[in-house]
């Protein structure tokens, strides 16, 4: 199992926009690199003052809709100062977005 530990924080783009960051970096730098057939596990801690969840752009969620990141619809949000663990085993190579 390939394991990641992510902390979600407020971040700034260096100008005026407040965004979300992961592990003290812009969220677009939080990449998952996995070999075909390898299982991934991502431990996520919400360090924000509000609830959040993750949506997996490019990773199909067939059979794992409960981790698709639609708070209040397919999963419960991660509360402030709380954690959740996401599990996935991609069944295709590449991203599909």
From TrEMBL:
<dbReference type="InterPro" id="IPR045087">
    <property type="entry name" value="Cu-oxidase_fam"/>
</dbReference>
<dbReference type="InterPro" id="IPR008972">
    <property type="entry name" value="Cupredoxin"/>
</dbReference>
<dbReference type="InterPro" id="IPR011707">
    <property type="entry name" value="Cu-oxidase-like_N"/>
</dbReference>
<comment type="similarity">
    <text>Belongs to the multicopper oxidase family.</text>
</comment>
<protein>
    <recommendedName>
        <fullName>Plastocyanin-like domain-containing protein</fullName>
    </recommendedName>
</protein>
<dbReference type="Pfam" id="PF07732">
    <property type="entry name" value="Cu-oxidase_3"/>
</dbReference>
<dbReference type="GO" id="GO:0005507">
    <property type="term" value="F:copper ion binding"/>
</dbReference>
<dbReference type="GO" id="GO:0016491">
    <property type="term" value="F:oxidoreductase activity"/>
</dbReference>
<feature type="domain" description="Plastocyanin-like">
    <location>
        <begin position="17"/>
        <end position="97"/>
    </location>
</feature>
């Amino acid at each position: 199992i390939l394991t990641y530990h992510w902390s979600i924080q407020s971040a700034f783009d260096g100008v005026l926009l407040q965004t979300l960051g992961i592990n003290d970096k812009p969220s677009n730098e939080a990449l998952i690199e996995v070999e075909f057939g390898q299982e991934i596990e991502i431990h996520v801690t919400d360090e924000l003052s509000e609830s959040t969840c993750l949506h997996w752009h490019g990773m199909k969620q067939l059979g794992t809709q409960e981790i698709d990141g639609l708070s209040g619809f397919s999963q419960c949000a991660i509360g402030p100062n709380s954690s959740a663990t996401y599990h996935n085993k991609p069944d295709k190579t590449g991203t599909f977005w």
